[in-house]
Write a structure and sequence with these properties.
Blueprint (H helix, E strand, L loop, with lengths): L2 E8 L3 H8 L9 H4 L3 H10 L3 E6 L14 E4 L3 E4 L12 E2 L2 H13 L5 E3 L3 E2 L1 H10 L8 E7 L9 H16 L6 E7 L16 H13 L9 H8 L6 H11 L3 E12 L2 E10 L1 H9 L3
Parallel strand pairs: 1-9, 2-8, 2-9, 3-6, 4-7
Antiparallel strand pairs: 1-11, 3-8, 4-5, 10-11
Helix pairs in contact: 1-5, 4-6, 6-9
The structure holds 3,4-dihydroxybenzoic acid and fe (iii) ion.
Fe (iii) ion binds next to loops.
Length: 290
């Protein structure tokens, strides 16, 4: 059976891709951010996931205002990046896992999440930068199932709904009958606002509270509405929705391996959190009623 080994949340600011392309990881501006991934790489080398299920928000590359699914699941054999106008290099394609994608889609629809299915999907910096941060270089050591959450066209899904989506994804992964180790990734956040009167807005105390709650009491964050999160964390800080989905997928028996928090990268409070799911908790969860 497939097993969730843990989850990682990370910011995805486009400038990260530029820093990687220009080899700036050790520069004073960038090292407090990139050094945060050293322990994460060691953890990934030990855990060796086969597949990553990545919750991210498309920023207008694959979906635009004309058609905007609330939740969409990739079911492609590979995912292609493209020029979004940030001046970032287009990346080598990312391998998919269509069998796992269709299993997740079947289970999600049966669980009353009527997702959009994407047999072709362009992936933007929300997908590419986390992959490059976790698996640097041209290698593609893990297959991918991208799941997008709308943060662009209101109304947005609520934190509670995204958490429940994550729970449904977690149940679906653990009911997959192939022996796979699955990592769940959340891409986005933490607090940031790119435009309007509050451009540059960052809320450190809210971010740190969210990181703590994501570890030990994620349901406490489901009492917020998406508009509450925008108020507290900035317009684009609503990308916290991905972190709630990731955390929902992990369920109980989760411990913190590592975190990093650095202000700012570009306009964003850059957060990173590694959560491990204990093997015993995985077994216990299989015995819980769905
Ligand atoms: C920035 C952050 C984002 O999440 C994004 O999608 C684009 C830009 C930034 O801080 O520059
Ligand atoms: Fe973003």
């Amino acid at each position: 059976m497939a097993r969730i080994i843990g989850g990682i949340g990370t910011s995805h600011v486009p400038a990260i891709g530029g820093a990687i392309a220009r080899g700036l990881q050790k520069e004073p501006y960038w090292s407090p951010f990139f050094d945060g991934f050293v322990r994460t790489h060691a953890w990934l080398a030990e855990q060796k996931p086969d597949v990553v299920v990545i919750f991210y928000n498309d920023h207008g590359l694959n979906f635009f205002l004309d058609k905007m699914p609330t939740f969409a699941v990739g079911a492609a054999p590979e995912y292609i990046s493209a020029d979004e106008g940030w001046g970032l290099p287009v990346q080598k394609p990312y391998p998919g896992d269509p069998d796992l994608s269709w299993h997740l889609i079947e289970q999600l629809v049966a669980d009353e999440f009527d997702v959009t299915t994407c047999q072709e999907m362009l992936v933007d910096h929300g997908f590419v930068n986390p992959y490059s941060l976790l698996w640097p270089g041209e290698g593609r050591p893990v297959r991918c199932v991208p799941i997008t959450v709308n943060t662009v066209q209101h109304p947005l899904p609520s934190p509670a709904r995204c958490y429940k989506l994550g729970q449904a994804v977690g149940r679906a992964i653990e009911s997959y009958d192939k022996d796979l180790k699955v990592l769940v990734v959340a891409s986005g956040g933490l607090s940031h606002q790119l435009d309007g009167k509050r451009a540059g807005f960052i809320n450190k105390s809210f971010d740190l509270m969210c990181l703590d709650k994501l570890v030990s009491d994620p349901e406490a964050l489901t009492g917020y509405s998406s508009l509450d999160i925008i108020e507290q964390a900035g317009t684009q800080g609503v990308e916290l929705l991905m972190w709630l989905a990731m955390r929902g997928a992990l369920g109980s028996g989760v411990s913190e391996v590592h975190r990093n928090y650095h202000i700012p990268i570009s306009n964003t409070a850059a957060g990173m959190l590694v959560l491990e799911k204990a093997a015993a908790a995985v077994r216990a969860r299989r015995l819980e009623p769905a």
